[in-house]
Amino acid sequence: MSMKIAIEELAGCSGCTIAVLDLHEMLLDVVDKADIVYSPVIMDVKEPPEGIDIAFVTGAVRNAENQERLEKIRRRAKTLVALGTCACYGGVSGLSMLHSNDEIFSYVYREVETVKPDGVIPTDVPPFLYRAFAVGDLTKIDYYITGCPPKETYLKQIIPALVSGDKLSLSRKSVCADCDRKMGAVENWTLKRRYEGVPDREHCLLGQGYLCLGSVTFGRCGAACPKNNVPCHGCNGPSLDILREPCRDIYGMMVRRISDLTDKPEKEVEKELYDIAHTMYPFTIGSLIMEDKEVSKIRDLVKERSR
Amino acid sequence: MKEIAINPVTRIEGHAGVRIYLNDRGDVDSAHFQVVELRGFEKFLSGAAIEEAPRITPRICGICPTSHHLAAAKATDQIFGVEPPATGKKLRELLNIGQYIHSHSLHFFMLAAPDFLLGHDCPPETRNVIGLARHSPDLAKKAIAVRKFGQRLTEAIGGKPIHPSNALPGGMSAPLTAAKRAELATMADEALRIALEGWDIAHTLLDGVDTEFGAVRTGFMGMTNHGVYSTYDGPVAVLNGEGGRIGSFTGTDYTKFIEEYSEDWSYLKFVRLKGGENYRVGPLARLNVVEKMGTEHADAALAEYRERFGTVSQAALAYNLARYVEFIASCELAVKLLSDSGITGTDVRTPAVEVVNRRGVGIIEAPRGTLIHDYTVNDAGIIERCNLIVATCQNNYAIDRGVEDVARRVVKNGALSDGAANQIEMVIRAYDPCISCATHAIGRMPMKIELVRKA
C-alpha cells in the first residue's frame, strides 16, 4: 500500500501547490512512492477521499466554504500539515480584516472607477466569516511548514521525509542567520521608506535605516530578499523566539532591536514607524496566536466585527 | 428546479463551479460559471505605502505572481517619475518571459494536455500530470524540465521563483551575474528545443476536435508594439466582434474603454467594453491582435495556426494552440535576451526620490491576458485608491456563455455523464482561468457542476 497524499486549497493563491510542483523531477520520485489522491489545482478528483495518510492544507480560512473544507480534510487525513504562511498565520488574506466585510464588498463592487455605484453585491455565494483564521486557530494541525511559499530546497527535504516517515532536523533560525551582510557603524539613524535611495550591498539593511524584518522572521529562505538588496518583509512568519514567548511580538521586537541598534529610546523609534499593518504584520494579521499576545498591535489595527 | 453541480472545477487555478438550470423536460434552461471567493486586495491595499504594492500583489496569484509584481512595479515607476535604465528594463522583460515559460508550460502540459492526450473519458484519478507521467513519461520529463527553466529564470532575475521581489520603483534591485547568465543561456537553448519538439504534438492536438465547442462571439484586447507581439510594453489594442480595430490605449485611458459589472451568483466581476460589447483577452486575443510574433519559429507556428483558424479566431479551444505559439516565442525571446550583452549590465535602477505623480497605471500582458494595476496615492505615496483589472474577469462572460453552450450540447435528459461534465470543464480550462487572480480572491475550489431543475 503506498502512501496517500492530498493537497487542499483554502483562501490563498495556489502558490504552495506550485511550490510542490517545483520539486520538479523529484516529483516523479515522490509519485512513485506515494499516490496523490486529491489536489484540485492539478487533478480532477472533486472531493478528498477517506483514508488519506498525509494532507497538506494551504491558504487561510476566510469564508464558510474554506471552513467546511478544513473540517472535512481534518476528518479524512491521519496527518494534517499546514503548508505555507497563509495556513500557518493567515497570510495576506488577513489584511482584509483592516476593513469590515461590508466595506470590502462595497468598494470592490460599487466604488472602484470601472464599476457603477449600483453594482450587484453577490449574495448567492459562500458568506465571509467575521474574520480570517490561520488553520491552527480552528483545528488540530500536526506539522507546520511556513514560507510564502516554502522554498524548494526545504520542501525537497521535508516531503520525502514525510512520505517515508523519517524524522528530519532543519534550521530553526531567523532570516538574519542566512544573511551575508555586516553590521557596520550605525550613526544618525533615521527610518527610510523602502523606495528611498539605493541600499549598499554590504551592510545590514536595518542598520542603513530600512525596515528589514529579517531579525523577527523565521528563516529557511536563504535570506533571498536581503541578498537581492530588498529588505525582508516577513513572509515566512515570526521567528521562533517570538512565536514561543507570549510577551514577544513582531512589532515590539522590531522597536526594541532598532532602539538597541541606534541608542534611540523606543518611544522615539515608534514615532518614525508608519503603516504598521502593511509593514509589520502583512502576513500574520489573521492569526489568533499572534493577535492574542498581550503586546500585539493587531487588536488595535483590526476593527471589531459585528457581522 | 433541478441542479447539476460540477464542483469544484479542477485543474484550474482557484475555486469555481458551474450551475446548470434545467427546464421540466430536462433540457438546459441556462448555465453559469460561478466563482466562490474574493480576497479584497483592491480594498486592503489602501493605507499601504505604494512601494509595498509590488511585494503584496504577487500574492494574488501563485501561478502568475510575476505579472502582478511587474504591473505594480510599472505603476510605481510612474508615481515616482523614474524610468528604469536599459538593463533594468531588459531584466524586467526577461523576468516576464520566465513567467510565461512556467505558466504556459504548466497549463499546456500539466493542466490541459491530459484532456487531449489521455482523452476526456479517462478516469479522473489519472487524467492529470501524474497520469501523463505514466502514459508519456518522456513528455512529462520534458514538461518538467522546461517549466523548471521558467522558474529558474524567474528566481535568478526576480529573487524567488514564486512571489519574486526584485522589481521596484525605477527598475530592479540586483543585476544578473555573468556566471548566472551563462547557466541560464544553456537552459534556454534546451527549453527552446523542447518547445519545438512539443509543437509536433501541439499542432495536431485539435485535429478532429469540434472547435465550435463553447463558441462565443466577442471583441478582443491585447498588447502589441507596432503590430509585433509584445507582453511587457506597448499600447493595448481593442478589436470588435468582427475583428475590426476600434482603438488602443495606454495608462488611465483604459477607463474610457471598459466597464465592470457583477452578478448575484459569483464573486467574480465581469468586464465589457463601454457600449456593452463583450471582449476576451489572453493568448487567443493577443494572436488576433498582432501581425507577427517577431521571432523565427513562433512566426512559422503562427502561420500554421492561422491556416487553420484565420487571422482573427473566435474559437475558444484555439486558446490552447495560441498559448503554445506564445510558448515558443517566449523560449526564443529568452534565448535572445540572454545572449544580449546588455543583460549583465550593473546599472539596473534609477533611484526614486519622491512622489511625482499621484496616479500610476501599470499595464502588462499576463499569461492569461491584459492585467491593469491602477493606484492613486497621496503626496506621501500612501495608497488611497486601487483598481485591479485581471484577465479572468475580462474572460468571465465568454467562459460563462461557453459553459452554457457546451451544457446545451452534452446534458441529455437531465443527466450529465462524467465525460460530459469534463467537456464543460475543458472549455473553462481553455481560458486557463485564474480564479485567485480574478477575485483577488478569498477561498478556493475546484469545480462543482450543479444541475438545477426548475419546478
TrEMBL record, chain A:
One Gene Ontology term of the molecular function aspect: oxidoreductase activity
Sorted UniProt keywords: Oxidoreductase
Residues in NADH:ubiquinone oxidoreductase-like 20kDa subunit domain copies: 13-159
Coiled-coil boundaries: none
Presence of keyword Oxidoreductase: yes
SUPFAM superfamilies, per the entry: HydA/Nqo6-like
Cross-referenced Pfam families: Oxidored_q6 (PF01058)
Entry-linked PANTHER family: COENZYME F420-REDUCING HYDROGENASE, GAMMA SUBUNIT, F420-NON-REDUCING HYDROGENASE VHU SUBUNIT G
Protein name: F420-nonreducing hydrogenase
Protein species of origin: Methanoculleus receptaculi
UniProtKB/TrEMBL annotation, chain B:
Chain positions recorded as Fe cation binding sites: 64, 437
InterPro entries: Ni-dep_hyd_lsu (IPR001501), Ni-dep_hyd_lsu_Ni_BS (IPR018194), NiFe-Hase_large (IPR029014)
Pfam families, alphabetized: NiFeSe_Hases (PF00374)
Cofactor(s) named in the record: Fe cation; Ni(2+)
Keyword Oxidoreductase belongs to the record: yes
Source taxon at top rank: Archaea
PROSITE patterns, sorted: NI_HGENASE_L_1, NI_HGENASE_L_2
Keywords carried by this UniProt record: Iron, Magnesium, Metal-binding, Nickel, Oxidoreductase
Example GO molecular function: ferredoxin hydrogenase activity
Residues bound to Ni(2+): 61, 64, 434
Binding residues annotated for Mg(2+), in chain numbering: 42, 388, 440
Family from the record: Belongs to the [NiFe]/[NiFeSe] hydrogenase large subunit family.
Name used for this protein in its record: Ni/Fe hydrogenase subunit alpha
Species name: Methanoculleus receptaculi
